[in-house]
Design goal:
Blueprint: H1 4-8, H2 17-37, H3 41-64, H4 70-93, H5 99-121, H6 131-149, H7 155-194
Pfam families: CDP-OH_P_transf
Subcellular location: Membrane
Membrane topology: Multi-pass membrane protein
């Protein structure tokens, strides 16, 4: 996990190439929402693929050009969560996935949101995203195109349904595992701050 010293090396730059890419990805969210709700699955898959590629690209550029920023650390997970939420709502609305799956994801976000006031109370911003959270996001983003593809009749649709649900369940599991790690870090911060000690980073 990242230490506080590593967090402090992240600068407060705004107009960087990775951040511009992240903003463009966010602007595609309403377009993607309309496409998936209206049943334009091919176009929705294209937008989702572009969003996924841009997610990798902005991270690569940030590391390569040393343009990592605090704004970027907030934009990236925000964009990922929006795409996940919009896709889930669209698929549930079209009865391609059950609504309980939406509930599980939303509950996780509510738990994370409940950690924000605690961090702000002790003067901390958002903590670095854990690798398990990134893996869970990847699993969910990989699952959604497959669940859309599952509507195709025949062997292709059947295979997409199996692999898609396997990816979705793994993604949810990793998503919640990362959430619990995040909660553990926040609790550790609160305990150390109440004890009057300086936090040296998550264990």
């Amino acid at each position: 996990m990242s230490t506080q010293r590593e967090v402090d090396t992240v600068v407060d730059r705004v107009w960087t190439i990775p951040n511009v890419i992240s903003v463009l990805r966010l602007l595609l969210v309403p377009v993607f929402a309309w496409l998936i709700l209206s049943g334009h699955d091919v176009a929705a898959l294209v937008v989702l693929a572009v969003a996924g590629a841009s997610d990798w690209l902005d991270g690569f550029i940030a590391r390569r050009l040393n343009q990592t920023s605090r704004l970027g650390q907030m934009l990236d997970p925000a964009a990922d969560r929006l795409y996940i939420f919009v896709t889930l709502i669209g698929l549930a609305y079209r009865e391609l996935v059950p609504w309980w799956l939406v509930g599980v994801i939303v509950l996780r976000e509510l738990v994370l949101a409940g950690m924000i006031p605690i961090l702000l109370r002790y003067g901390y911003g958002p903590l670095p995203v854990h690798m398990a959270g990134k893996a869970g996001t990847f699993g969910l983003m990989y699952a959604f195109p497959l669940l859309l593809l599952a509507t195709v009749p025949g062997a292709v649709g059947d295979a997409a349904w199996i692999v898609g649900w396997a990816s979705a369940l793994w993604g949810v599991g990793l998503y919640w595992f990362a959430c619990l790690l995040y909660v553990e870090q926040v609790v550790a911060i609160a305990r150390r701050e109440r004890g009057g000690r300086t936090w040296a980073g998550p264990a």
